[in-house]
Design a protein that fits this description.
Blueprint lengths: L15 E2 L2 H11 L6 E5 L5 H9 L2 E6 L5 H7 L6 E5 L7 H8 L4 E6 L5 H10 L4 E9 H8 L9 H9 E9 L4 E2 L6 E8 L10 H13 L5 H8 L7 H11 L12 H14 L3
Parallel strand pairs: 2-3, 2-5, 3-4, 5-6
Antiparallel strand pairs: 1-8, 6-9, 7-9
Helix pairs in contact: 5-7, 8-9, 8-11, 10-11
The chain binds S-adenosylmethionine.
Length: 277
């Protein structure tokens, strides 16, 4: 950073890796082969990028901060298998990138900028037809939410949205001093193996997520009360809700955070039968 006269921009979530252990952990989790094509989000000064270039067939990096681009070009000058994009990853057209820069499904490997962790993860989930695997450094609390089971305090909409379309593994916990400047919280490496089809067959995805959102809308209320207050579908009255909960055998006094993905799908299907088009 001194060599290039660069100061870390905290607004862009710049916490650069300065430790080999997390790098190794990410590279091992990604199970890279010389045939792999990889996208790195936020390459920064290129410490992870160099490892990726040495271990994969092709590497496309997406960096928003213009001042880092010349550093990255210089760092990776010995490699011919890299393409550096100066872009905001949230605005990136993944379909275009997939068609023009990759030959097959690619892996995403990144030490994420934490201020946009959830939108990036949701983008990866939405773009799963082009992505096979994501190995991500995230805040430890986010990692805990990603792998959380029903009935635990970390289980929420993010857990359901990601686990519906992926198998998620916690790989390792990383201390703050592995980064410069150190972030305020601990980090974790997670491995997200994307599924082509959802975990449970879904007829109406948008309705499913509305039901989940309504159920989690009031965390301290019972499922029945949360749904009654928040669910707004034509034809679904308080009485229909009672009937649906009875039909599905889901105890109305449970709380939203205790329901599994399978139970939410069952609930959505049952509700749909009573909905008026
Ligand atoms: N990969 C480097 C490392 O491990 O040392 C840097 C990781 S740092 C936590 C996050 C990186 O994401 C920074 O380089 C930052 O400039 C970049 N970044 C922030 N917002 C971004 C965005 N919207 N699109 C692409 N890159 C972004």
């Amino acid at each position: 950073m001194r060599k290039y006269g660069i100061k870390a921009d905290k607004r862009l979530g710049q916490h650069f890796l300065v430790d080999q252990k997390p790098l190794l952990s990410m590279i091992t989790a990604a199970e890279l082969s010389p045939e792999d094509e990889v996208m790195e989000i936020g390459p920064g000064l290129g410490i992870l990028t160099l490892q990726l270039c040495a271990n994969a067939k092709r590497v496309v990096t997406v960096e928003k901060d213009r001042q880092l681009i010349p550093v990255l070009e210089n760092m990776t000058r010995d490699f011919k298998n890299i393409c550096i994009l100066e872009e905001d990853v949230l605005k990136l057209n993944m379909e275009n990138v997939s068609e023009n820069l990759f030959q097959g499904r690619f892996k995403v490997i990144a030490n994420l900028p934490y201020y946009i962790t959830s939108p990036i993860i949701m983008k990866i989930i939405e773009c799963r037809r082009w992505i096979s695997l994501a190995v991500l450094m995230v805040q430890r609390e986010v990692a805990q939410r990603l792998v959380a089971h029903p009935g635990t305090k970390d289980y929420g909409i993010l857990s359901i949205a990601v686990q519906m379309y992926a198998d998620v593994e916690m790989v390792s916990i990383i201390d703050q001093d592995s980064f410069l400047p150190p972030p305020k919280v601990k980090s974790a490496v997670v491995k997200i193996m994307l599924r082509q089809n959802p975990r449970v067959e879904l007829e109406d995805e948008s309705m499913f997520f509305k039901v989940v959102e309504a159920a989690f809308g009031e965390r301290r209320k019972t499922l029945k009360n949360s749904l009654k207050r928040r669910l707004c579908f034509p034809g679904i009255t308080s009485d229909t809700l009672d009937r649906v909960l009875d039909e599905t055998g889901i105890e109305p006094m449970r709380r939203g955070e205790t329901l599994s993905i399978e139970e939410y799908v069952k609930l959505t299907k049952a509700l749909k039968k009573y909905m008026i088009d």
